[in-house]
Design a protein that fits this description.
4-stranded antiparallel sheet, 7-stranded mixed sheet, alpha/beta, binds pyridoxal-5'-phosphate, about 375 residues, about 35% helix, 13 helices
């Protein structure tokens, strides 16, 4: 028998990983559920995407097209890019992991910002690498801080723009400055999961940089504004050499036929996308203002969620607010693991959910708020 000490053990990085904790999808009370914990769209997917998804039922016995050709063509058409430089995956999470797996190994480093998306350190450690955390300024990535941490061991810089859970973004001249300061062998991953929501003249998703530079990859998702989180579908755009490497190591069939069909239909329903963006624009402003009127601090967001800071007052903490809202069916996200122990992240929902959340916060804080 194998002695206990000789059991199979994963490489050291694996046991350093804190598993990703998804948003809750259940409330504590019996009240109607308002799930505002995972940045999903309140509008749901395009009805055309649902129809296309169902149409795939007849071919479930067949393997999908491993190259997701139809989907890559639709992405290329929508964004005016070269389909050969698109890689599709089971959510952008898969692409983030693929980049880490292909380019980072034991003894090497990758940088992400202090309050950056938590999948980055998981992917870095899973590949044996060491995550290096760059401090942020005003809950926003700091280009100088990132650049000051680059060493000869750095392989990748992960930047969510806009970032989750802060909702803040880097203007594109800052992204360019970041890229210009990186050695050419370091990959800059621009994670643009929330790009479609941003209404700022100085914002760009990074598509152009990924199209023109040899070390920039942009990742996108169908989980947010397209409302297909349950399908697991994402894509990235990058230089030919990186795309070639990712295609060599990716699972051949991680994107299913229903995903390909739904993704194509979702991309073509421009009207649904515009409706979702317009809804977010209106309610992002209303929700942020409503919370601020209650005396709460809200980090300025350009995405489909807000980071709400609770007061230090006894009994008014994020944990207490979370429990109070859960009793009323309102599910928000605790963000302690992101470095915000006294804040909650709220996804912009439909009118009913947003109003219910604002009313619950008002009740929690007392009618006069905390001001
Ligand atoms: C910044 C960011 N990137 C990537 C993702 C992953 O999205 P998916 O794997 O669903 O495409 C998320 C999801 O929350 C996110 O917030």
């Amino acid at each position: 028998m194998t002695p206990v000490s000789e059991r199979p053990v994963p490489h050291p990085g694996v046991l350093d990983i804190s598993p990703y904790v998804p948003g809750k999808s259940k409330a504590t009370g019996g009240a109607k559920l308002y799930k505002l914990s995972s940045n999903e769209t309140p509008l749901g997917p395009s009805p055309k995407a649902i129809e296309a998804f169902k149409s795939a039922a007849e071919t479930l016995d067949l393997y999908p097209d491993g190259a997701a050709t139809e989907l890559r063509m639709a992405i290329a058409e929508t964004y005016g890019v070269n389909p050969d430089r698109v890689v599709c995956g089971a959510g952008s999470d898969e692409l983030i992991h693929l980049i880490a797996r292909g380019y980072i190994r034991h003894g090497e480093e990758a940088i992400h910002s202090q309050h950056g998306f938590l999948v980055y350190p998981i992917a870095i450690r899973a590949s044996g690498g060491t995550p290096i955390v760059a401090p942020e300024r005003d809950s926003t990535a700091d280009v100088d801080a990132i650049l000051s941490l680059v060493t000869e061991r750095t392989r990748v810089v992960f930047l969510a723009n806009p970032n989750n859970p802060t909702g803040t973004y880097l203007p594109f001249d800052e992204v360019r400055r970041l890229h210009a300061g990186l050695p050419s062998q370091v990959i800059l991953v621009l994670d643009a999961a929330y790009a479609e929501y941003v209404r700022r003249n100085d914002y760009e998703s990074g598509l152009e940089l990924a199209a023109t530079e040899d070390n920039v990859v942009m990742t996108r998702t169908f989980s947010k504004i397209y409302g297909l989180a349950g399908l697991r579908l994402g894509w990235c755009y990058g230089p030919t050499a990186i795309v070639d490497a990712l295609n060599r190591i990716r699972e051949p069939f991680s994107v299913s036929t229903p995903s390909i069909r739904a993704g194509v239909a979702a991309l073509r329903d421009r009207e649904h996308l515009d409706k979702a963006a317009a809804h977010n624009q209106v309610w992002l402003t209303k929700v942020a203002k409503g919370l601020e009127d209650l005396g709460l601090a809200v980090t300025p967001s350009v995405a489909n969620f807000v980071l709400i800071h609770l007061p230090e007052t006894e009994g008014k903490s994020a944990a207490a607010a979370d429990a109070f809202l859960l009793e009323r069916g309102i599910v928000l996200r605790r963000v302690t693991a992101y470095g915000f122990p006294n804040a909650l992240r709220m996804t912009i929902g439909n009118e009913e959910a947003n109003v219910a959340a604002l009313e619950a916060f008002a009740e929690f804080l007392g009618t006069n708020g905390v001001a």
